[in-house]
């Protein structure tokens, strides 16, 4: 049985270390309840699918931190090319794909390939050597430490329950404030 979004992110929060965490779309509604550090950057862009590029840039600029990007399956479908880009730039980016088969926060429409697309296999085919798939909470709890340790890039594909009727979440603070907090945490002067 698929895990809930809350359960999946709770395990991730326990293993995040000192990495920058970039929750996107549906995860923005849950992540601030689990973590609210200056290294958290709730990314709610007007274009889905750009979280991996942001995470890659931050990990390249600050390799001592690395980055965890929390992406939905819908966001991944918007930018599958990011997998090839991550493979071409070996750095500590951990791309967590929450697959619920829905465009959850834009109306609950089923995603293309729902139930058929294998994001771990797509990551491996793009050249990412470490790709993990977890279908349920016990497996994710048992494998999270290994998946989130060692060098990146890494893809972690998690099956989560879909929640229809959700609205687009709001970032926990204005973007300018988030940018300033993250800059200070990374030692970059605004």
Annotation keywords:
7 strands; globular; five-stranded parallel sheet; 36% helix; alpha/beta; 8 helices; two-stranded antiparallel ribbon; 190 residues
Main sheet: which strands, in order across? 1-2-3-7-6
Main β-sheet description:
5 strands, parallel
Number of helices: 8
Look at the helices and sheets and give the structural class: alpha/beta
Descriptive account of the structure:
With 190 residues, this protein is an alpha/beta fold. It has eight helices and seven strands. Strands 1-2-3-7-6 form a five-stranded parallel β-sheet, with helices on both faces. Strand 6 (130-134), helix 7 (137-147) and strand 7 (154-159) form a beta-alpha-beta unit. Helix 1 packs parallel to helix 7 (137-147). The longest helix is centred in the N-terminal third of the chain and has 11 residues, at 51-61. It starts with a helix and ends in a 5-residue tail after the last helix.
Secondary structure layout:
Elements: H1 5-14, E1 20-23, H2 31-34, H3 51-61, E2 67-72, H4 73-78, H5 81-88, E3 93-99, E4 102-103, E5 109-110, H6 119-125, E6 130-134, H7 137-147, E7 154-159, H8 175-185
Parallel strand pairs: 1-2, 2-3, 3-7, 6-7
Antiparallel strand pairs: 4-5
